[in-house]
Design a protein that fits this description.
The protein has about 575 residues and is of the alpha+beta class. It contains eleven helices and 31 strands.
């Protein structure tokens, strides 16, 4: 009974509510936020010839449909060595003459077996006492320039494109280069410390002796092997790896900061084959334009995918806190607490979306297979997810699982420093592939979709089938415009990404500075009717009084009806008395 009574009272109250309580106020108009300058998705700066398949100094170089393909002359130098190419080709690179030297076909199978690789250490987006802005700049996304330290091939020219442009030359970039060697080759890795802090090189997962032939430590760990490489000094690491696989290398000095700062890279030992000339360096990772003989036995193409993240406090505050290396060391080693760190930037091959579209697309064709080598260079676990496909994992940390243990699924979890090899299959059977198209791939830990907390950004990239790429390597997208992503305003949090989705700009920002008058017009328009000329206040008072009287009378009637039996019995008892 109580429930019915409450329902009646609520319904009567709603019916008796004054009509002006349904009035609506106009909202402020939508502000039109200017998008600002929009970068070209792909400029004409790169020669279209770089994208074509070609042969340079006897080196076969695969086509690369990317917007920013690698310099083919660099590829020739990485395959033949800087001592094995023509002077003309060398001059088309910025490599030093001794950056990579190859010699001694020890096993007589037609390829060199002694490889000497010289690496320097460079700073990107760092400070100089001579200028206010960062020098040797490297943008991971429009206007985003964290400071990095990287291993880089030894170069002969300036660190920048020119004396007028602070942009880093293409050999100095994030991530540190992928290093490729052949199984059983003798490798000398010479690290020239051109930086202002101590560093080392640890060969993570790569077969190497603890001590070299000179009795000097070879593991890159100061506490147990050899002293750190001080600024201006160099150290040679000598190895002869016996097992093939996808490995890892990184600095082992204060690794909780030096590895996130960028001193890390993929190291690959290729299976031994006759006349096998691996591409010794893959700068910036991405497509390998000269795959090894063993890879081409199974796959059409090969891609290196290096995932990284960066804490804004470390990369923009601590690393830029001074021009005195003593103070930087103090701030980094004595004050910065990595246990409180949170990553703000998430990158694939050194870039965040949308720049990943220029360099880190995976091109596919129907029914072909592609090899992916993936490194988790993050500080936390990640989950690789490729839309439209279920790739097969063949190797963990460089070790072949064996066909009976291959795992096929669409999300592959990886802990920090772990590597996996994936087989991406273009067979349209609903399992390997869902068909041709433009398919996203990314780390499915959701914050990795963002750049400084703004989405969609981070390490997003695409698997694109051949017919969905234009002549510049730009995906022929079928969704929203990519223009906002190529502006600095979006990544500064100044542009509402949904602003222009419809003609009314219904999801833009309200213009709180606009001069407007709120309306008090009822939502439902009522046709005007003739009434006697009675003052408005008197009409409202009279109507309200009648409605209240009606409500009280209705409630009284309801109570009398519900309790009629009890009232009847009491009245009868009074009469009988």
């Amino acid at each position: 009974m109580h429930k019915n009574l409450l329902t009646f009272i609520w319904g009567a109250t709603m019916l008796l509510t004054h009509s002006w309580s349904q009035a609506a106020s106009d909202l402020p108009p939508t502000a039109k936020v200017d998008m600002g300058p929009v970068e070209e998705v792909c400029s004409d700066f790169i020669s279209p010839e770089w994208r074509k398949a070609q042969v340079i100094d006897g080196v076969e170089i695969q086509a690369s449909r990317l917007c920013n393909p690698d310099n083919p002359s660099d590829i020739a130098a990485f395959v033949k060595g800087t001592n094995g190419i023509s002077m003309k080709t060398l001059m088309e690179t910025q490599l030093a003459a001794d950056a990579i030297t190859m010699s001694d076909d020890i096993d007589g199978d037609g390829d060199p077996d002694k490889i000497i690789i010289r690496l320097e250490i460079a700073e990107l987006n760092g400070h100089s006492p001579d200028m206010k802005d960062p020098t040797t700049t490297f943008d991971i996304a429009p206007g985003i320039q964290p400071t990095f330290w990287v291993f880089a091939p030894k170069t002969r020219d300036m660190s920048t494109l020119s004396i007028y442009e602070p942009i880093a030359n293409p050999l100095l970039r994030v991530p540190s280069p992928v290093i490729r060697v052949e199984q059983d080759d003798v490798i000398w890795l010479i690290v020239e410390n051109t930086h202002y802090l101590p560093h080392s090189l640890h060969l993570h997962g790569i077969d190497h002796p603890f001590m070299d032939h000179a009795g000097v430590g070879n593991d890159g760990v100061a506490q147990s092997s050899n002293m750190d490489i001080m600024p201006g000094e160099s150290k040679t690491y000598v190895i002869k790896p016996r097992q093939p696989g996808t490995m890892y290398y990184h600095c082992h000095v204060q690794p909780h900061t030096h590895i996130p700062m960028g001193l890390q890279g993929i190291f690959i030992v290729e299976e031994n084959r006759p006349n096998n000339w691996p591409q010794t360096l893959n700068v910036g990772a991405g497509q390998v334009r000269h795959p090894s003989v063993a890879v081409l036995e199974k796959y059409a193409r090969e891609y290196d995918l290096h995932y990284q993240s960066a804490d804004k406090e470390l990369h923009e505050l601590v690393a830029r806190s001074a021009n005195d290396p003593r103070l930087i060391a103090k701030h980094m080693n004595m004050e910065y607490d990595s246990t409180d760190a949170t990553d703000d930037y998430f990158m694939l091959n050194g870039r965040s979306f949308p720049y990943t579209l220029r360099e880190s697309l995976i091109e596919m064709q129907k029914d072909e297979k592609v090899k992916l080598r993936i490194l988790n260079g993050h500080t936390e676990a990640m989950a690789v997810h490729i839309h439209g496909h279920k790739p097969t994992i063949t190797h963990y940390d460089g070790v072949d699982n064996g066909p009976g243990s291959y795992i096929q699924r669409d999300v592959h979890g990886m802990v920090p420093a772990q590597r996996i090899d994936l087989e991406l299959n273009g067979t349209d059977d609903g399992l390997n592939s869902f068909g041709q198209g433009i398919w996203m791939f990314h780390d499915h830990v959701e914050k990795a979709f963002t750049t400084n907390g703004i989405g969609e950004g981070g390490d997003i990239s695409l698997v694109v089938y051949k017919d969905f790429l234009d002549e510049k390597g730009i995906p022929k997208s079928h969704g929203m415009s990519l223009a906002p992503y190529f502006t600095k305003g979006l990544w500064k949090g100044k542009y509402p990404i949904w602003q222009d989705y419809d003609a009314w700009h219904s999801l833009g920002l309200p213009d709180l500075k606009a001069d407007y008058q709120p309306s008090k017009v009822a939502v439902q328009t009522v046709q005007a009717q003739w009434t006697p000329a009675t003052p408005q206040a008197e009409q409202e008072s009279s109507a309200f009084g009648k409605l209240v009287f009606g409500l009280i009378l209705g409630l009284l009637s309801y109570v009398l009806i519900i309790n009629r039996k009890m009232i009847y019995d009491r009245v009868r008892k009074l009469i009988n008395k």
